[in-house]
Amino acid sequence: MTWEPVIGLEIHVHLKTRTKMFCRCPVAYFEPPNTQTCPVCLAFPGSLPVPNRKAVEWTVLLGLGLGCEIAEHAVFHRKNYFYPDNPKGYQISQYDEPLCVNGRVPVPGADGDMEVGIVRAHLEEDAAKTVHVGGAEGRIHGSESSLVDFNRAGTPLVEIVTAPDLRSSEDAKRFLQLLRQTVVELGISDAEMEKGSLRFDVNVSVREAGEAALRTRTELKNMNSFNFAAKGIEREIKRQIGIYEAGGEVEQETLHFDPGNESAPPLRSKEEAQDYRYFPEPDLVPLEPQREMVERLRRELREPPWARIRRLEAEVGFTLAEGLVTGGRDELYSRTPGEREAVANVLMNELAAAGVDPAAVNGEELGKVIERRAEIPRAAFDEALAASGSGGFSAERYLAETAIADVGELDPVIDRILSENEQQVEAYRGGKDGLLGFFVGQVMKETGGKANPQVVNERLREKLNA
Ligand SMILES: [Zn+2]
User: Fold this and answer.
1) How close is the Cα of 30 to the center of ligand 1, in Å?
2) How far is the centre of ligand 1, averaged over its atoms, from the C-alpha of 385 (Å)?
3) Are residues 141 and 11 in the same domain?
4) 3-state helix, strand, coil in the chain (%, to 5)
5) How far is the CA of 152 from the centre of ligand 1 (A)?
6) What's the gap in Å between 391 CA and the centre of ligand 1?
7) Is residue 263 pLDDT above 60, yes or no?
8) CA 98–ligand 1 middle distance (angstroms)
9) Which range, of 116-130, 155-169, 266-280, averages the lowest pLDDT?
10) Rounded distance from Cα 33 to ligand 1 centre (Å)
11) Does position 268 have pLDDT exceeding 60, yes or no?
């Protein structure tokens, strides 16, 4: 039997507005607990919310970026639930009249585009943060006490809900990377998963290939790593298939994926919308975004990441194009001259490994170094890359160092290394081609990284195959 996974995502993005959603407290991540609060975000009786104009604009901007229709009339609702980090007893969110609906995002793949529907993108406020003390890894299980930090309470949060259009963990991961890059480029969030400014829930179900209806789904909650999400999805797909094949039924539940022990213990059975008893927030008037504002924001949009991947694919192939764009390196790529694939490779590998901020790099100068890579010693090349992001970086200094390409100088070194490693030489001649790298490495070591690797390769091959 062939099973088809069905995956949908709910993504939460913190907006990086200066102030919170309904009060003037600063949005701050690293301040001492409970110092960024006021009567509104602490839910004092009688305090009233005032919406953050920038947060509304940015939600509209994001909606446009995701191909959504922008509502002419949107409403804030109260989502009622009790929790210690939710002092009002409700969260101000949006329900059946959100700001953005019906979007579509093309997700390029190696074999063509797929499209992911965006059901809605709405604006809400985040809850405070509960900190569990004394337990392992900050979990509530085994903790001695729990503290609440209200600094996060009221941070503007956009929730994006996709249609269940994704069919594999790989596609889900690719979509998330594209979405993250889009948000960052729009300048509305830093979308840093370690900080919690980007989190997501994954809904997973499986069905037999060809089946039209959706089966019961489970939810993996509060993921904050693309790789863990991909692993969690894989695991959940296998689990559900196992249940069906054993004649059982999948139960609707929320799972907490623990990447450490690869298990996903159930948290609770999923609430239904009716459990929250949504009703329109009586303290706020409906939102009616002006058409001039929407059109102004539409003109601010740049070429989206998925379109840039397709454009670059023609030059460097799909994998490099995807890596450049989702890694935020394609802007530097476009202003670095030189052979396209060589430039892309250096940006994705050596420059990324050196931890240099692509935005700070002088592309013109970097291009000169990449172009003459074979002629300069490895060490000088690495130094140049490490320095490429600092002000006043010039290729000249590094290009002045030349690698040893003189055979007369290299031959004695190569001969000595071959005679010192007779066993490996025999193994290579017996068919272990991979050992060539070992010999190259020895020569580079012996010359302090100053040998021209291309020449070393050629000479070694000649001598070994002689
Ligand atoms: Zn406040």
Assistant:
1) 16
2) 45
3) yes
4) 40, 20, 40
5) 9
6) 41
7) no
8) 24
9) 266-280
10) 13
11) no
Question: Which residue, among 193, 159, 197, 195, has the nearest Cα to 173 in the 3D structure?
Answer: 193
Given a cut of 80, is residue 111 above it in pLDDT? yes
- Residue 41 CA to ligand 1 centre (angstroms): 4
In a domain, 318, yes or no: no
- What pLDDT sits at residue 140? 76
Distance 322 CA to ligand 1 centre (A): 40
Same domain assignment for residues 62 and 135: yes
| 257 — pLDDT class (breaks 50, 70, 90) | low
Residue 372 Cα to ligand 1 midpoint, Å, equals: 57
Domain, as residue range, for 388: 329-399
Global pTM?
A: 0.84
For the domain that residue 434 is a member of, what is the CATH number?
A: 1.10.10.410
Residues 6+ apart with CB under 8 A from 412: none
User: What's the CA-to-centroid distance between 65 and ligand 1, angstroms?
Assistant: 29
Mean pLDDT on 180-204: 94
**What is the CA(139)–ligand 1 centre distance, in A?**
27
> 74 - beta bridge partners?
287
Phi, psi of 41 (to 5 degrees): -80, -10
Please give the share of the chain, as a percent, with pLDDT higher than 90.
Answer: 70
What pLDDT, in 10s, does the model give residues 395-441? 888 888 777 878 888 899 999 999 999 999 999 998 888 899 899 99
CA of 149 to the centre of ligand 1 (A): 13
From 358, 377, 399, the end of a domain falls on 399
C-alpha angle with apex 151: 226 to 19, nearest 5 degrees?
A: 90
Backbone torsions φ then ψ of 461, nearest 5 degrees? -55, -50
